[in-house]
Q: What sequence folds into this?
């Protein structure tokens, strides 16, 4: 018991839970990546290690009582401009677990190269620098773009994969972060709009209107689905996987070999202190994704400027939220939606979730925690009282 996996998001990690976690192996029909390379957090590694240690401390005390032996390995690596850690358990051997973990790392790095805006050999870079000409991209990139456009439409543009000119302008997470002039924001916004991305078939893509694509809001989610698909399709073993792709957590196969004791507990961080959790959500399979205003940001004149932009204004979304967590079998969807829900704010976001049967947890600036209607076997436990949070059920 008490096995809390503390995740440090790219921002916050919050979270929540609910929903029926029916496996969804192909529910999302995709797989792939995200990133945007800009966070240069000198403290990131330190904090990551602190979080990892807390995790160890918490998990050290509960023996699972599983009767089937699991061989577990952990692979830590840096990809998509963030720290990632993948725990793989095999029911066969240590070397099987190690091989799978290495394969996962390689695949995520491959996705990173394709979807990065800054890796010049990658196809997103190629696309963004093609001066509006039709450009051939990899299957991964094409699929990620298809998904991005699907969620842009679903959220009425709150999620928009063409925010690149604004992410460049603000430079949040880089040494050049600044508040741009309104005229610069207005100019950048003339190139923004997911309708500017034309998928021409056969992996050909064209960008109109000087648009540039930024898949930072969906890439890690896409990677999570690919990881899930990799272990699900490999029937040579019975896999149990917990992948922490920064603030995106992907789970497969349950935590132990025995049913009944096989849920992972994922802590949702306190936005003001991400070494502590304000809630825990437990589930055995699927993804838990969080977006928040707390890791990639800078402050000027007492105001916080973070990395989730409102496409309607070109400013960091000022929606009264600190963080949003989505729990869904499809992590690409969860990733796009956390970003979109953060932009929408609590009222519109809640309504959107109820209409679309999305499981989500919202944390507001005034320390209220909201969850959507809970269903299925994902459990949510609120722990934030002593930190001044209220659970508004
Ligand atoms: P994180 O990368 O911290 O996990 P998100 O998934 O919310 O957080 O993605 C934020 C990133 O998505 C930004 O760094 C930027 O690259 C991009 N982005 C910012 N605003 C939007 C938006 N409204 N729609 C789509 N992508 C966005
Ligand atoms: Mg996202």
A:
């Amino acid at each position: 018991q008490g096995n809390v996996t503390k995740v440090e998001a790219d921002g916050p990690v919050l979270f929540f839970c609910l929903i029926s976690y029916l496996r969804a192996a192909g529910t999302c029909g995709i797989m792939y990546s995200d990133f945007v390379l800009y966070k240069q957090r000198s403290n990131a590694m330190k904090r990551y290690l602190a979080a990892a240690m807390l995790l160890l401390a918490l998990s050290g005390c509960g023996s699972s009582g599983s009767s089937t032996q699991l061989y577990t390995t952990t692979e830590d690596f840096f990809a998509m401009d963030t720290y990632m850690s993948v725990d793989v358990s095999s029911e066969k051997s240590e070397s099987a677990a190690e091989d799978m973990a290495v394969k996962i790392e390689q695949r995520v790095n491959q996705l990173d190269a394709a979807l990065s805006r800054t890796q010049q050999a990658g196809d997103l870079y190629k696309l963004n620098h093609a001066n509006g000409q039709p450009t051939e991209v990899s299957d991964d990139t094409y699929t990620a773009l298809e998904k991005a456009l699907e969620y842009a439409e679903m959220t009425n543009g709150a999620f928009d994969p063409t925010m690149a000119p604004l992410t460049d302008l603000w430079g949040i997470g880089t040494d050049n972060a600044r508040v741009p002039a309104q005229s610069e924001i207005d100019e950048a916004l003339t190139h923004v709009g997911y309708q500017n991305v034309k998928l021409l078939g056969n992996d050909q893509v064209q960008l109109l209107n000087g648009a540039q694509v930024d898949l930072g809001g969906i890439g890690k989610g896409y990677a999570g689905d690919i990881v899930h698909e990799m272990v699900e399709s490999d029937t040579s073993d019975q896999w149990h996987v917990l992948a922490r792709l920064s603030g995106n957590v992907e789970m497969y196969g349950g935590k132990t070999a025995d049913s009944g004791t096989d849920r992972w507990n994922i802590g949702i961080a306190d936005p003001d202190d991400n070494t502590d959790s304000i809630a825990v959500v437990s589930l055995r399979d699927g993804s838990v994704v969080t977006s928040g205003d707390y890791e990639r940001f800078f402050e000027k004149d007492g105001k916080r400027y973070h990395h989730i932009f409102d496409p309607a204004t070109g400013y960091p979304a000022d929606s009264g939220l600190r963080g949003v967590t989505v729990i869904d079998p499809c992590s690409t969807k969860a990733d796009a939606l956390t970003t979109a829900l953060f932009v929408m704010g609590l009222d519109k976001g809640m309504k959107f979730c109820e209409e679309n049967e999305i499981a989500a947890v919202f944390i507001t600036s005034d320390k209220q925690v909201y969850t959507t209607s809970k269903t299925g076997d994902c459990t949510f436990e609120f722990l934030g009282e002593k930190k001044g949070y209220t659970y508004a059920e």
About this structure: Residues 9-11, 36, 159-161, 163, 167, 214, 216-217, 246-247, 291, 296, 307-309, 311, 335, 338-339, 343 surround adenosine-5'-diphosphate (ligand 1) (CB under 6 Å).
